[in-house]
Amino acid sequence: MSRARAKADRNPDDLYVTPRECAETLIQTIPLKPDWRILEPSAGDGAWLRALAIHPGFGGRVDCVEIRPEAEEPLRELYLELGLVGEVYVADFTAVTRRLVPGGYDLTVGNMPYSLGREFIRHMLFHTRRNGVVANLLRQGILHTQGRRRFNRAHPCWLNYRLDERPPFANDSTDSAEYGWLLWRKGHRGRTLERNLSWTDDSPCRTRDLELVRAEDWPLWSAV
Ligand SMILES: C[S@@+](CC[C@H](N)C(=O)[O-])C[C@H]1O[C@@H](n2cnc3c(N)ncnc32)[C@H](O)[C@@H]1O
Predict the structure, then answer these.
(1) Predicted structure pTM score
(2) Is the backbone of residue 83 left (phi > 0), alpha (psi -120 to 50) or beta?
(3) What is the signed CA dihedral for 63, 119, 188, 102, rounded to 10 degrees?
(4) 111 lines ligand 1 (CB under 6 A)
(5) CB of 106 within 8 A of CB of 131?
(6) What domains are there in the chain, each with its CATH number?
(7) Which atom of ligand 1 is nearest to the CA of 17?
């Protein structure tokens, strides 16, 4: 399929739901603390809210933003169902220019609308406190496309988990891109660490990969 055709076939709001086990595995790489203030800025139908809710370090507080008004009611119901505490904002996240919490969030996380590219990441960084974390399930292409040099110099990615398996986004059969779980730490100026990560339940590597993430990458988190 041509690139133009693939683009035309894309969902206008970039609504691609993250598979449950993918969100659950990826969020397990982050040692959440119960007092962390968390934001999901492109909530969709709440895949990351569900994944957060079963993370042992999650304290129950998370705010979310979603541009589609029709998503508001289901998201509010999901908050009740999961016992989450926080705000549901219906807004264009890139137009939210006032801080939603004093000092910024500890973690801003999700599977952002890819079409908004680095503008969305910059905005996630704006809403995150210094040393806080911005975590995105993204195509690796974001690090390599036009304009990358300036962006990667200004905001070097901290951890790049290259995903062994491509997430099967339900309504996009045209996508053959390589995906990553990309983490920025606000203020990080060093190199990008690259790891491989397997996320499917049936992968023999998943448990081992998560053990390695904890052994090798978690010590870095004492500074977060
Ligand atoms: C790739 S989907 C991901 C949904 C959800 N985070 C998930 O992982 O299942 C992107 C979501 O962002 C929403 N969205 C698109 N543009 C947005 C914007 N400017 N501000 C907030 N949400 C936006 C879409 O409606 C869609 O729900």
Answers:
(1) 0.92
(2) left
(3) -40
(4) yes
(5) no
(6) 3-217 (3.40.50.150)
(7) 9
CA 169 – CA 137 distance, rounded (Å): 12
Is the pLDDT reported for residue 68 higher than 90? yes
CA–CA distances in Å: residue 222 to residues 1, 33, 107: 46, 11, 15
Ranges 4-18, 89-103, 195-209: which has the least confidence:
4-18
> Averaged over 172-180, what is the pLDDT?
77
Among 13, 18, 94, 126, name the best residue to mutate to test ligand 1's pocket (greatest count of ligand atoms within 8 A of Cβ).
13
User: Contact 60/81 with Cβ under 8 angstroms?
Assistant: no
Dihedral class, residue 60 (left if φ above 0, else alpha if ψ from -120 to 50, else beta): left
Task: Determine contact, residues 52/58, Cβ cutoff 8 Å.
Answer: yes
Rounded to a whole number, what is the largest CA-CA distance in the chain?
A: 47
Measuring CA to CA, how many Å separate 38 from each of 30, 46, 63, 65, 134?
Answer: 12, 14, 6, 11, 10
